[in-house]
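[job 0412] stage=fold_complex status=start
inputs:
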Amino acid sequence: MQISELVRRADVPLATVKFYIREGMLPPGRSTSATRAEYDEKHLDRLRLIRSLTIVAGLPLNRAKKILAVIDHPEGTIYDMLGRAIEALASSNPSDESAGDETNRYPRAAAALAALPPTYNASNERMAAFAQLDEALLAAEEAGIPITPARLRLYGDHIMAIARAEIDGMPAGDPEAALQYAVLGTALYEPILAAIRRLAHQNLTVNAR
Amino acid sequence: MQISELVRRADVPLATVKFYIREGMLPPGRSTSATRAEYDEKHLDRLRLIRSLTIVAGLPLNRAKKILAVIDHPEGTIYDMLGRAIEALASSNPSDESAGDETNRYPRAAAALAALPPTYNASNERMAAFAQLDEALLAAEEAGIPITPARLRLYGDHIMAIARAEIDGMPAGDPEAALQYAVLGTALYEPILAAIRRLAHQNLTVNAR
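[job 0412] stage=fold_complex status=done
writing structure:
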């Protein structure tokens, strides 16, 4: 198809499509003349994926790019790739410079790890989610409602059961599909979980009236 | 204390304190002369609460105001108040105008409700979280990873167990403290849960390598 049809079917502006090509996020079409190029269904799929990552999941461009890079350069097992993709999703990344003293840099997350079930103890300190946890714990502390070890344990147990079902549900056999599912699922099922938690709170308070 | 001390201890700029007073979010001090007013610990607590709601929890001003109004005008049981506060927290509110046809307005949330455990069935349609759930389900659907009824059931079970512990953990006896705990907890423990979920994903993928 020509670029005009690609634009129409993907529902993405022409300037944006050209921008993605310049940024290396979308491969250029196959040149058929000096001024024309041909695009196919793979381009359309890719555009839809970029749209999901940036517009639907709301990821900034540099993080969307990192995730595309993981998909484009499959290295190691699907689990290695998954680890790198989840790492790219996180809002704050532990810098490599001060590797080794994460316990000092993220004291709240380090303390929380001791309260979480033992399943959580595999080399967490180097993970991006570790910095994110520390930040979230600090915010609760500043608001005067620090979380208790008992609550952390409870959260940890239930969330691990949820995460296990999510990882088990990955499409098998197709690494690219598995990665897309994992990355989009992490980002897009989060608001679903948050909404269900609010519904649960409301149900419990209604029933207690 | 004088306003300069209040500003210093609360770590909020003077102009912001004056703005909160004008907006009726913070009561004015007790006038001691034509140009001076006296503030006390209650003003300090209130400023810290406003700071938690707006800066730490990131709520827009109009929603923070609604929550303060619930705290300032205690009506009904603590559970009634809690319901109103959680309602004010939600990002989108079902409007009253078209009350009654929420199933049509939020078809995805309505379908999800049928898949969730029966604990979730108490008059959910009128709740703010219902609109939020519908929006989140739509985003996942648009990205090509619609959620399955089995996954919803699993999420619903674990999240209900989490929500039950949260509601049970409310400070008893002091309605104002209970409300603050509930509102801040809903907003501030959400990022903690999200970070733990990412840690869980990373642990599961590391262990599978």
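[job 0412] summary: Residues 92-99 of chain B have pLDDT under 50 and may be disordered.
[job 0412] exit 0
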